[in-house]
Each structure stands twice: as structure tokens, then as C-alpha cells.
Design a protein that fits this description.
- The protein folds into two domains: about 10-145, Nucleoside Triphosphate Pyrophosphohydrolase; about 155-235, Arc Repressor Mutant, subunit A (Orthogonal Bundle), CATH 1.10.10.10.
- Strands 1, 2, 3, 4, 5, 6 and 7 form a seven-stranded mixed beta sheet that branches. A three-stranded antiparallel beta sheet has the order 8-10-9.
- The protein is of the alpha+beta class and about 240 residues long.
- The protein has helices at about 55-65, 100-105, 130-145, 160-170, 180-185, 215-220, 230-235, and strands at about 10-20, 25-30, 40-45, 45-50, 75-80, 90-100, 115-120, 160, 190-200, 205-210.
- The chain has seven helices and ten strands.
- A hairpin with a 7-residue loop joins strand 9 and strand 10 (about 205-210).
- About 30% of the residues lie in helices and about 25% in strands.
Length: about 240
């Protein structure tokens, strides 16, 4: 079969940006790169596209190979193609992203490639343009959280207001006033207060809540009010 004459070879890769929530912190799954350049430095979960697979298939294969995690639906974020993004050879990479409950997948992670969860605020510097990829993925996550109820899917059946606040603060990289946040959340009437308390953090403890799913389906838009906005929150 004839090939395109005079065309430059360009490698295609995929990078998986996996956000996770553990009940306290929003985290990202990273791995130590196993090849030069930048060997043993921290990177996103990535690898090259094989001739026989689609980008989606490559992302699933790479994620399973390096972490052991499989069966995730990942959203295609963007293709990164700055000519010198990889110093060794011209490579374009398509990033995929998703958000998971860490507790559901922590037992799947294999130790072979040193995959590890890092709180976003404490993550190490990443190789190449991976920090830029991560920042864009965070922006996309904020947009999705504002228009879809994805964050509540990460919460356990019963949760505390501080847990919910930690999740929102992690996604939007901001601090909320505790009393203000609690007041605004409860004003939506989408949460049902339980009698049980979580006393792991203090003797006084924090009451558990559960989602009122009937009202939630009809009233999710009320949570749009929690998006960090200088006019709304006075930051």
C-alpha cells in the first residue's frame, strides 16, 4: 500500500488525568516515568497510541497497565501539540479526564509503576506540559461541577457538611467561610439531617446528612450558587 510521501513522522500519545476524592481531599493520580527523558520524575498516567487502537482504547489500556484501574469512562479533554512539548521527539498527546471515589479503586492500584494519589495542593512538579494539562482539566472539572451533579456522586450515602465543603474547596481551589457555606447548603433543603454524628474530628462531632434524591433531581440548580464568584461570596 502506498504511503504519503515526504511527511514527517509524529508520535501520538494519551495522558489520563484521574481526579479522586477520599472524603477529605481532592487528589490526582500520578506515576513515576519509567523512561528517559525525565525518568523517575512524576507524570500523568500516559503512553503511546498503538497502530491498531483508537485514542479511547489507548487511554483505557494505558490506565490499566500502569495503575490496574479499568472500566472507567474518561472524557476527552484536548490534544496538546506544541512542537517542543517532548524534548526527545515530536509527540502530540490527547488528554482524557475523569473523577472517581478513591475508596472504590484504591485496592486495584498495582505497585509496579509507583502510581500514587496526591492532594492537588501538595502534588510534585510534573514533566513536560503535564502541569498545563492538569490546570485545564481542573477548569473543565469546575465547569462540569457547575452544570452537572457529578460531585455528589463521590459522596458516601451519609456525609457531613465539612466533607461536602472540602470537596467544593478542592474543586474550586478556594476557601469558604464555614458558617456561610453551611447556611447556604442547608437553605437549599436538598439535604436530610440524620441523628448520627461523625466524632472522628472532634468530641462535639458533626451531624451526618444524606441527599434528598427526590428534591435533588429537580433542584440541583440551586447548588450553582456555590460556584466561587467574587460578587456572590465577597472574596
Amino acid at each position: 500500500m502506498p504511503k504519503y510521501a515526504g511527511q514527517t513522522r509524529i508520535l501520538a500519545a494519551v495522558d489520563c488525568i484521574i481526579f479522586g476524592f477520599d472524603g477529605d481531599n481532592l487528589q490526582v493520580l500520578l506515576m513515576k516515568r519509567g523512561i528517559e527523558p525525565e525518568k523517575n520524575k512524576w507524570s500523568l498516567i500516559g503512553g503511546f497510541l498503538a497502530r491498531s487502537e483508537s485514542l479511547e482504547q489507548a487511554a483505557s489500556r494505558v490506565l490499566k497497565k500502569f495503575t490496574g484501574i479499568e472500566g472507567l469512562y474518561m472524557h476527552q479533554l484536548q490534544t496538546f501539540s506544541i512542537p517542543d512539548r517532548d524534548p526527545l521527539e515530536r509527540t502530540i498527546s490527547t488528554a482524557f479526564t475523569t473523577l472517581v471515589d478513591i475508596h472504590q479503586y484504591e485496592k486495584q492500584i498495582i505497585p509496579d509503576y509507583h502510581a500514587e494519589w496526591f492532594p492537588l495542593a501538595k502534588k510534585p512538579k510534573l514533566i513536560f506540559d503535564h502541569d498545563s494539562m492538569l490546570r485545564m482539566a481542573q477548569q473543565e472539572l469546575r465547569y462540569q461541577a457547575a452544570s452537572h451533579p457529578i460531585l455528589f456522586e463521590l459522596l458516601p450515602e451519609k456525609f457531613t457538611i465539612p466533607q461536602l465543603q472540602n470537596l467544593y474547596e478542592g474543586v474550586y481551589v478556594t476557601r469558604f467561610d464555614n458558617r456561610n457555606f453551611s447556611r447556604k447548603v442547608l437553605s437549599t433543603e436538598l439535604l436530610i439531617k440524620l441523628r448520627e454524628k461523625d466524632k472522628s474530628g472532634s468530641k462535639k462531632g458533626a451531624y451526618y446528612y444524606k441527599l434528598n434524591r427526590k428534591k435533588y433531581k429537580a433542584g440541583f440548580r440551586s447548588f450553582m450558587n456555590f460556584i466561587p464568584n467574587h460578587d456572590r461570596f465577597g472574596f
